[in-house]
Amino acid sequence: MSNSGFSKFNLSKETSKVLDNKGWVEPTEIQRETIPAALTGRDIIGQARTGSGKTAAFGIPIIERCTPSGHPQAIVLCPTRELAVQVAEEMNWLQGNKGLKIRTVYGGTDIERQAKELASGTDVIVGTPGRVIDMTKRSHLDLSGISTFCLDEADRMLDMGFFPDVIWIVEQAPNRSQTLLFSATFPQEVLDASEDLLDDPEQVFTGGTEIEVPEIEQRHVRVGRANKLWVLGRIMLTLGEGDQMLVFTNTKRMADMLVDRLDRHKFESVALHGDMPQNKRERILSDYREGKHTVLIATDVAARGIDIDTITHVVNYDLPDETEAYVHRIGRTGRMGRSGVAWSLVTANDVLQLDRISSTWNLNIPSSQPPDLPKGVDRDPVRKREDWDEVSDSFGMVRIRVSVGRKEASKREFSDWLKAEAKLPDIAIGDILQEDHSAIIEIHVEKAGATLEILKRREWEGSSLKPELLDRPAVAFNRASMLA
């Protein structure tokens, strides 16, 4: 049989034929390590990075164990509507002509229409917790016959946001005999939370506890919030024909604002988040999957349902608050062995979080400059702005280095000259650090821009001051050391 890799699982003729027609010759690592045990009814904890074939790893055993009876025998819970739709679609083609009725149950769609579909017969449920609970309470859904219970993106499903709903659903399935948990990450707190759901599970952690992303080039750019759009514009200019970009923001409002701002600079993009009507979200995803959109801007929750092999660039416009979210995000590119690049735009306030992400998952995320303008482009589509907040310290002071020529100029002498030329109050001038033929002066952020412009036009004792704006210091100047 040409499908020799899967044949050792002794799958049904229907499933074997579908896999053979699809050209699936060898199972992926997560499929190879979990399907045999799952077929025997064993509980499973399966970890593998996004894009490694997790859906088939639990979908094939569920399909094999279910029969076209019209009564719910298995349920797959997902954190988002988009992911539920994609899981159901993949399971439908995996079953071939077996005849299972695989129903999606999620919010944002007509509840009566879903009720009618369920009433016409259901073998496998793929849904989100909220709507599953709603349909169960309305008696449109009977979970008492469920034997296989599966959580996709289990790390998300077992966090405090979904955990109570998951437990409620489990309690409605007293005849549950098998539990399958699959995710890209399994933090210890998630493993602890899952203990009561599982009975001697087979644990498969492909790649160990580290997240391996060998085909993904990761970079971060240190940039202030005011210039994130400038960097994003530079990255977007590197997109080639057929490339697609997924940009992550932490809020729905920022996703919408970013689309608007990019539009002003003649960049086409589209947002995807939970405040949109479900039919609009599905249309956007369908168009993106077909290549009608090049740039999609999404929140973490919305992006959980995005399983598209053609994404070449991921941009963390906002660095995620949770380290696991970073792994999920960058896993949206470099799918199935393809190459990809993940950019993170990191403000001074994000540096500790970036270090936390790197150390938690043993990732190398080197610092990088924004891409150069491509050949033939002589100006930025988004103008770079002066971002004083990014270079100011926690006291709101900005450091400027100036050339003062002679070493014997006192701090007081230079301070008095500066106050007179720039018309600065005493409180706007901080410390002055003398160096050989130069000095570093501190100016409050509210006066920094005007002062820098004045210093560019003035001379100190006949010589140009050559003012240079310095990066934010790792530690602020000692406030006890004031002007002599």
Offer a concise description of the structure:
Helix content is 36%, strand content 18%. By secondary structure, the chain is of the alpha/beta class.
Describe the structure.
The structure is a single chain. The chain is of the alpha/beta class and 484 residues long. The chain folds into 3 domains: 4-205, P-loop containing nucleotide triphosphate hydrolases (Rossmann fold); 216-361, 3-Layer(aba) Sandwich (Rossmann fold); 388-469, 2-Layer Sandwich (Alpha-Beta Plaits), CATH 3.30.70.330. It contains 19 helices and 19 strands. A 7-stranded parallel beta sheet has the order 3-4-2-5-6-1-7. A 6-stranded parallel beta sheet has the order 8-13-12-9-11-10, with helices on both faces. It has a 4-stranded antiparallel beta sheet with strand order 15-16-14-19. Strand 3 (102-105), helix 6 and strand 4 form a beta-alpha-beta unit. Helix 4 crosses helix 5 and helix 15 (323-330) packs across helix 16. The longest helix has 15 residues, at 81-95. The chain is elongated. The N and C termini lie far apart (88 Å).
